[in-house]
Amino acid sequence: KFKITRRLDYDFTTVIEKVNLKAGVPIMGGLIVVITVFFVNLFFNPENSSKNLLVLLFIFALSALLGGFDDVLNIYGRERAKLRPLKRTIKLIMVHKDLSKRIALILSLPWAAYKRFFYMLGSNPGKGIQAHEKIIIQSIAGFALGYAAYFLIPSEMQGLLHIPIADVFIDIGLLIIPFAWLTVVLMTNAVNLADGMDGLAASQLIFSYGGFLVISLFKGELWLTFLIATVIGSLTSYLYFNVPPARFQMGDVGSLSLGALLAGVAFMASEPLMLLIISFPFVITLLSTVVQGIGRRLLGRRIFRMAPVHYHFQMHNDWSEEKVVMRLALLGFFMMIFGLWVFFIDYYS
Question: How many separate helices (H) and strands (E) can be counted in the chain?
Answer without folding.
Answer: 13, 2
